[in-house]
Amino acid sequence: MAKIFVITYSMYGHINAMAESVVKGLKKAGAEVGRYQIAETLSDEVLAKMHAPPKADFPIITPEDLPKADGFIFGFPTRYGGAPAQVRAFFDATGGLWSSKALAGKPAGFFFSTGSQHGGQEATVLTSLPFLAHHGIIYVPFGYAHPSLLDNSEIVGGSAWGAGTVVNGDGSRLPSQKELEIAEAQGESFAQVAKKLAAK
Ligand SMILES: Cc1cc2nc3c(=O)[nH]c(=O)nc-3n(C[C@H](O)[C@H](O)[C@H](O)COP(=O)(O)O)c2cc1C
Questions:
Q1: Which of 2, 145, 155, 164 is found 20 to 30 A from 173 (Cα to Cα)?
Q2: 83 in contact with ligand 1, CB cutoff 6 A
Q3: Ligand 1 pocket, 25 CB below 6 A?
Q4: Mean pLDDT by 10-residue block, N- to C-terminus, for the chain (200 residues)?
C-alpha cells in the first residue's frame, strides 16, 4: 500500500473541496492518505482585507514530513498564472531534502483552480514543474483519463495536467460534479502509479 500525502494551499476553500474527491479516489485505489496544508505567509490583516475565511483544520506540512510519504498530490489555486507564493515559500524550505536527495524517485501530481477559464491552469502546472525536477521527483500527469475532460457542453476545469475547477472572479462557482469526478479519478490513477513505484 502506498502512502500518499495530499498537500494543499487554499484561501477560499475550493481547493479543499477538490481535495476531498482526490482523497476519495486515492482511498478507492487502496492508498493510505495523509492530508496536510501549506502554511500561510500573509498577515491576518491582509487576509481580512482579502475576505479570506478561517483556514481548514489540517496539519501544516513541514519539510521533515515529506520523506515519510511514497508520493504527493499538491493542490493550489493559480496566482497571476502560476503557483501562490505560499507554495514557493514551502519549497524554498526544502533545501535540506534537495541536498540529501530524500525525495528523488517519488511521484507527484497537481490539481488546481482558477477564477477564469483561461486564467492559467496549465501555466500553473508548467511553471511548478521545476519544484519537482530539482528534487528528482517524478511528475505524474493525469492524461485525458476521464471523459469529462473532453466535454465542451459546459465549463469543466482540468486537463491532462490534472484536475481543476473554475471558480469565477468572486469565488461564487463551486466545483461542479464533473470537476469533482475528475479529481476523484486523478486520485485513483495516481495511487495506482504510486503503488507500482513504491513496490520497486
Ligand atoms: C492575488 C490573486 C491572484 C490571482 N490570479 C489569478 C490568475 O492569474 N488567474 C485566475 O484565473 N485566477 C486568479 N485568481 C483567482 C484564484 O485562482 C481563485 O481565488 C482560487 O482559484 C480559489 O481557490 P481557493 O478557494 O482554493 O482559494 C487570483 C486570486 C488572487 C487572490
A1: 145
A2: no
A3: no
A4: 96 98 98 98 98 97 98 98 98 98 98 98 98 98 98 97 98 98 98 91
Give dist(CA 55, CA 153) in Å, integer.
Answer: 34
What is the C-alpha separation between 130 and 136, in angstroms, rounded?
Answer: 9
With a 6 A CB cut-off, is 114 part of the ligand 1 pocket? yes
CA gap 100, 91 in Å, rounded: 15
Distance CA 98, CA 139 (A): 16
Distance (Å, rounded) from C-alpha 59 to C-alpha 11? 15
Contact assessment for residue 22 and residue 183, using Cβ atoms and an 8 Å cutoff: yes
Q: Which atom of ligand 1 is nearest to the CA of 11?
A: 27
Tell which one of 11, 127, 155 to mutate to probe ligand 1, the residue whose CB is within 8 A of the most ligand atoms: 11
Its pTM stands at 0.98
* Domain that residue 163 falls in: 3-198
Q: State the CATH number of the domain containing residue 150.
A: 3.40.50.360
Distance 79 CA to ligand 1 centre (A): 5
In eight-state DSSP terms, residue 134 is: H
Letter for the amino acid at 52?
A
Our answer on whether the CB atom of 115 is closer than 6 Å to any ligand 1 atom is yes
Q: Is the CB of 82 under 6 A from ligand 1?
A: no
Q: Which three cell numbers stand for residue 94?
A: 526544502
Q: Which three cell numbers stand for residue 132?
A: 519537482
Give how many domains the chain has, as a whole number. 1
